[in-house]
Predict the structure.
Amino acid sequence: MTSDLIQLLRNKALALLARREYSRAELALKLRRLVDDEDGIALIEQVLDDFRDRNWLSDERFAEQWALHRSQRYGPNRLRQELRQKGISGELLETAISEHAVDETGAARRLWERKFGTPPADQKERAKQLRFLLGRGFSTEVAYRVVGGSADWDDEIA
């Protein structure tokens, strides 16, 4: 019974990892649907440890790929929140974000140009554009710079 469950867990984990990278916490959550007791949870940890030892499962690799892919459309605040939800925290989280969210203003400007392309005509449109960038996880300073078209944030809010 135990060996059958281990084989089931391994097969399910491999099938999931064949599609994309997962964090350890994310993969454990998916595998927990297959078990209903403490012994099953211990087997999940055993399988995940084996996968980590074989380098089939890596939180570092997951965080780097997630941040690289998502940094084109989202700011560092949003990336930080998403990675925490995926079970990545601490130094690993900050390293992934700092490596891939280097040019926050440039990413925000590219996104803004694709979505809007022209400066806001009135305060209502300006608020809409600011909300869009803030919702994507860009800092307030960067949102004001991009929407206002100015490199000096203090001039924008005065």
User: Anything to note?
Assistant: Residues 151-158 have pLDDT under 50 and may be disordered. The chain has three domains: 2-57, 60-100, 104-157. The CA atoms of residues 70 and 79 lie 7 Å apart. Residues 2-19 form the longest helix (18 residues).
